[in-house]
Amino acid sequence: MQILLPLLLWPLIEIGLFVTIGGRIGLWATMAIILGTFALGIFVIRLQGGGAIMRARQGLRAGQAPTQDLGRGLFGVIAGILLILPGFLTDVLGLILLLPPVQSLLAGAVLSRMGGQGTTRSATIIDGEWHRMDEPGQAPMRDITKD
């Protein structure tokens, strides 16, 4: 029920905003805004997606986990998708999601829920030896590293 209600209200809010704003500024201005935010969404997706991949590669080369950069890039792509979708509410949400402080805040929240902090953490290395022991009655497994 928590997901169903917003899914039902979202289109109703969008229709109400179209009628209200379209009645005040006119049909052609409304269409121009919708087409303009569509073009902006395409531009944002191309810019944010490519930029996030480049920053992630640079972070990997420097030996850092690129989680924060990928998070920002992902939210930038989501913002672009929201801008592409027709509607004033989705456009406002997409524009808000383009703000770097909002992206950082959301990326930090998502990373903390996933257990990471957006920083590189040193792994604990335990030195040891292992031996494979075959099940009784089975033929010994062949070691492919010696071929």
From TrEMBL:
Presence of the UniProt keyword Oxidoreductase in the record: no
InterPro entries attached to this UniProt entry: FxsA
CC terms in the record's Gene Ontology section: membrane
One Pfam family from the record: FxsA
Record field: transmembrane: 28-49, 70-89
Keywords: Membrane, Transmembrane, Transmembrane helix
UniProt keyword annotation of Metal-binding present: no
UniProt cross-references to NCBIfam families, sorted A to Z: PRK11463.1-2
Name of the protein this chain belongs to: FxsA family protein
Protein species of origin: Neogemmobacter tilapiae
